[in-house]
């Protein structure tokens, strides 16, 4: 295969064909995506409810968190289509337009989340390390503009997916796949494919990772240098937030992005494939929609406060229900004892009355 020439026809490699027929894949992926949807939908609805209606003032970081939460909610809402696809043994039944939409939303969620988390880390760095100088850059309108720019950048890099029919008919398996077999014609030549994959890895994963790590390291160093009587608590929260962000990057995004790079290089230049490993790693990316609400908890004081209020109210309601249930049970038990005593008394009276009647006779 030359550097500028692509195969004349799109044919799935052996690794992809094995994945399409893998009995474990059609069990693991539906279960994983179902769990993510069941947790991610209520979790992000709850997060949006707090961020939009119970967090004041609405700062630039809150706007970024709202954007991230909406993205996670949309992803979780469309995951049932992926579940059905894998339950049908990797056979897509919803048409090519919905396949393209689900695919683009999946990758848009991943890369917009990475960029948004990077911006949240930059915003926190400016607020902690340069609070006086950075005031004008942390305004709400700049946060809104940043969200718009993120989506422009994400849709720009994903435009090849958006304009391509992502379905493919594997005739000898009698299956219509969705995304699992990419058409070579999606990009004009081999170098364009290489530039596409490398750009995704470097600009949409590696740079956000490096910037985020540096920002949180500088935040922690600043807090350690200027610690006061309230410092310990703030330092702990910042460390927890940094660890949470690193957990999201390492657990959710690192496996799929590294494996995609390895798979793409081998597929393009050495005719080898690691698609099964990549397919499994994509389930880890979707986990970010479940973990992101924990980022909001550590990043926003109002979010923590409201979440604790809701949790305390729930516990109070549970305890109240238990107390009420115990009271009702006690009342019923007392009434039962009273009725039983009454029955004994009445029976005893009747018995004595019968005896008196017998003696009179």
UniProtKB/TrEMBL annotation:
Membrane topology: Multi-pass membrane protein
Highest taxon, organism lineage: Eukaryota
One of the record's GO molecular function terms: G protein-coupled receptor activity
Gene3D superfamilies (UniProt xref): Rhodopsin 7-helix transmembrane proteins
G-protein coupled receptors family 1 profile domain residues: 43-296
InterPro entries registered for this protein in UniProt: GPCR_Rhodpsn, GPCR_Rhodpsn_7TM, P2Y8_rcpt
Keyword entries, A-Z: Cell membrane, G-protein coupled receptor, Glycoprotein, Membrane, Receptor, Transducer, Transmembrane, Transmembrane helix
Record's subcellular location: Cell membrane
Alphabetized Pfam families for the sequence: 7tm_1 (PF00001)
Annotated TM spans: 24-50, 62-84, 104-122, 142-162, 190-221, 241-265, 277-299
Chief location category: membrane
Cellular component aspect of the GO annotation: plasma membrane
Keyword Glycoprotein applies: yes
SUPFAM superfamilies, per the entry: Family A G protein-coupled receptor-like
Stored PANTHER family: G-PROTEIN COUPLED RECEPTOR, P2Y PURINOCEPTOR 8
Family to which this protein belongs: Belongs to the G-protein coupled receptor 1 family.
Protein name: P2Y purinoceptor 8
This protein's encoding gene: p2ry8.S
